[in-house]
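Could you please consider the sequence and fold appended to this message?
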Amino acid sequence: MNIPSFGVGTFRLTGQTVIDSVRNALDVGYRAVDTAQIYGNEAEVGQAIEQSGVKRAELFVTTKIWTEHYARGKLVPSLRESLDKLRTDYVDLTLIHWPAPGNGIELPEYMAALAEAKALGLTRQIGVSNFNIELTKQAIAAVGKGEIATNQIELSPYLQNPKLTAFLKEQGIAVTSYMTLAYGKVLKDPVLARIADKHQATVAQVALAWALQLGYAVIPSSTKRENLAGNLLARDLRLDAGDMALIAALERNGREVNPDGLAPAWD
């Protein structure tokens, strides 16, 4: 199955907040949900999915392995725990969350463990997150061409990452954009506001439509039902070449997430 182009993210959402967000998202038409071990909300996400009444086969569920579970003997057991929390027999996609170069576990070891999880049927597809070009090359070498479904990376109108996205496209690896709204910073952008006015859309819809038109998957989150529904309308928004050129000019290498010890040397 291809990576769905539109999903709901759950970063920073916990407890009843994440239950309500996922339940509302599924209710308004989302069918892909993105979580991670480190978010501490897999159990709540699982509860929301179960209570939604949506059939499991209609959903695309992604989780990410946290750095302390990268060792060969730990990754598969940690994913089994995630499956228990998510109340499912499998996830559709499992990602290595960060390359964590100083972690003491070498890339070939954790990629082999991830491939093992797929071979065991615990995950349908595997991929990476926050990998630069060099590390993505190493990941491909470790598990084989065609095995890496996506690289989930921070991308927004302020951080467009052209080298990495071009490389991924060349390799046939789907790009998943997170932080597409740059923690809400792009919502105040006057250029995006003008484009939004022209299309009678919201700025969030414009930013998401920009990513979709570049062929990226997006996973925005929201705690408000109306915003979840509004974001989904980005799928129907067509930006013209002039709009796309204006957005291309907003690049400022505005990275929001760059944790020491976890992040690679960015391209």
About this structure: The beta strands are 8-9, 32-34, 60-65, 91-96, 123-129, 148-154, 174-178, 217-218. The mean pLDDT is 97. The chain has one domain: 8-248.
